[in-house]
Design brief:
By secondary structure, the protein is mainly beta. It contains 1 helix and 10 strands, in the order E-E-E-E-E-E-E-E-E-H-E.
Length: 224
């Protein structure tokens, strides 16, 4: 994602703003049993918003589903644990005076999904903690509700809440008024809350939209 904005304040004053966010993720999964899976996660990203010139993460993960995976198009309750090594290169020196660092972290995701003829409910709770500083952590919760209005056409509702205690990437220099108003960089905060409403239309079977859900349910992560 690349955004460029230009504002004309008056005849002689112009302000331009550029933000860049790039990300690539890799997931490899081995099916162990009807309930257990193991795999590896890797990712690379760049984001001016969170002061990251390059972030690399990699590590193993294991997952257990209360129900057999063959029932995943109807229901699933999964527990996923992962251990990763995260490497960060920063655009600007951080509040801790660092321009680069490597940090170990682990995460636990509990996710549930129910698919019925009337619609679908998804929810997850994710906890991420850095092992070299146990106080640095993040908790993400997500809940979505999809209601089938008629064949293929759905009403979608979602909410997301994050408890944020891992903003070690914030730049040491304070944000300018321009950066704050244009949302160029993330500000210091303790939480984030989002809600949304929309409509969607799905072609094909409403129940067979997932081919292999192993280690993928509830795997999305916001921010750092």
């Amino acid at each position: 994602e690349y955004d460029y904005e230009k504002f004309e304040l008056d005849d002689t004053t112009m302000i331009s703003s550029t933000t860049q966010d790039y990300a690539a993720d890799l997931l490899m999964v081995w099916s162990l049993t009807d309930h257990w899976s193991a795999g590896g996660l890797a990712g690379a990203s760049r984001s001016t918003f969170v002061n990251t010139d390059l972030a690399l993460t990699a590590g193993p993960a294991i997952e257990y589903d209360l129900f057999p995976y063959r029932q995943s198009t109807r229901r699933a309750v999964t527990f996923r644990y992962a251990v990763e090594v995260a490497s960060f290169n920063y655009e600007l020196a951080t509040v801790e005076g660092k321009t680069a660092e490597v940090r170990p972290r682990h995460s636990l995701v509990i996710a549930a999904a129910v698919q019925q003829p009337w619609g679908r409910i998804d929810g997850s709770v994710e906890g991420i903690q850095y092992l070299d500083d146990l106080a640095a952590h993040r908790i993400n919760t997500f809940l979505s509700f999809e209601y089938r209005l008629f064949r293929g056409f759905n009403l979608d509702l979602f909410s997301q809440f994050s408890r944020i205690k891992d903003q070690f990437f914030l730049p040491a220099e304070g944000l300018s008024e321009e950066e704050i108003l244009l949302r160029r960089r993330q500000r210091e905060t303790g939480f984030q809350f989002d809600v949304g409403l929309g409509f969607s239309y799905r072609f094909g079977s409403p129940f067979a939209n997932i081919v292999n859900p192993r280690v993928a349910v509830g795997s999305e992560e916001e921010g750092h």
